[in-house]
Design a protein that fits this description.
Elements (H helix, E strand, L loop, with lengths): L1 E4 L3 H18 L4 E4 L6 H12 L9 E4 L1 E3 L10 H8 L11 E2 L8 H14 L5 E4 L21 E4 L2 H7 L12 E4 L2 H5 L3 E6 L5 H9 L17 E5 L10 H9 L8
Parallel strand pairs: 1-10, 2-3, 2-6, 3-5, 6-9, 9-10
Antiparallel strand pairs: 4-8, 7-8
Helix pairs in contact: 1-2
The structure holds 2-amino-2-deoxy-6-O-phosphono-alpha-D-glucopyranose.
């Protein structure tokens, strides 16, 4: 796992956006894994800037989102499929239907989960997956206790996650209780994982993810099992890492040709 601590959000976003843009130039039909939450937003802005400058195209790419609330009507402004449309898809040149998310607006949730797994597989799997981390260590909506081998399925949100996400809804009670999320096993199959976190509220979760034991108690710790993970942090989110100095040394000494 590569841990990179950079004070400027623009630098962190540029590293992630450049990695995605390089991938799209090498492989225009690449499959992107998109995340919601505030952490990836600067990456989307950086990608839109590259697109506006004519430096990248999404015309042949496909994308899959990580998760979705159950029971929000498809057009609800907080449905994650809408959020991704607003923040990225509608701002670049994805082909119609190229961006997909789990269908949370259905009477048959198990069928929607199976369908999503098979859609990802048929697309050839995800090349690069953006991630954030919840303050309780959740990845996508895999709450503590999630099987490290889990696949796309329904989950119940913890009170902590519902409280964290209440800021997007009119009233805390409006935050749905159930979600469909890619499983930890699903996420581990993406070929490159890029996780962004900032702020002291994430410091404990980040330390448990990077340096703690691999445990369902911190779902993020499953990333230790993946061969290609890049973690982009600000100093506050890196605040509880024991090996911070070492990570900085590695980053400073990294050959420029290596990329992330
Ligand atoms: C939600 C999303 C996660 C995201 C988390 C943290 O729970 N399902 O994918 O990582 O929020 O969001 P933020 O980046 O806003 O802190």
């Amino acid at each position: 796992m590569e841990v990179i601590v950079l004070s400027e959000v623009s630098e962190r976003a540029a590293l992630a956006a450049d990695a995605i843009a390089d991938l799209l130039r090498r492989k225009p039909s690449a499959v992107l894994g998109l995340a919601t939450g505030s952490s990836p937003l600067p990456v989307y802005d950086a990608l839109v800037a590259l697109y506006d400058a004519g430096e990248v195209s999404f015309a042949q790419a496909r994308a899959f989102t990580l998760d979705e609330y159950v029971g929000l009507p498809a057009g609800h402004p907080q449905a994650y499929r809408q959020v991704i449309d607003r923040e990225l898809a509608s701002r670049v040149d994805f082909a119609p239907g190229a961006v997909r998310g789990p269908n949370g607006d259905t009477d048959d949730v198990p069928a929607a989960c199976t369908q999503y797994e098979s859609d990802i597989e048929s697309a050839g799997g995800v090349d690069v997956q953006l991630l954030g981390i919840g303050s309780d260590g959740h990845l996508a909506f895999n709450e503590p206790g999630s099987s490290l081998a889990s696949r796309t399925r329904v989950k119940t949100l913890t009170p902590q996650t519902r409280a964290d996400n209440a800021r997007f809804f009119g009233h805390p009670d409006d935050v749905p209780r159930h979600v469909i999320t890619q499983g930890l096993g699903t996420i581990l199959q993406a070929r490159h994982l890029v996780l962004l976190a900032s702020g002291g509220g994430k410091a404990a979760a980040v330390a448990a993810m990077v340096e703690g034991p691999v445990s369902a108690s911190c779902p993020g710790s499953v990333l230790q099992l993946h061969p290609h993970v890049t973690v982009l942090l600000d100093a506050a989110a890196a605040g509880e890492l024991r090996l911070r100095e070492y990570y900085d040394q590695v980053w400073r000494g990294k050959p420029a040709w290596q990329g992330i």
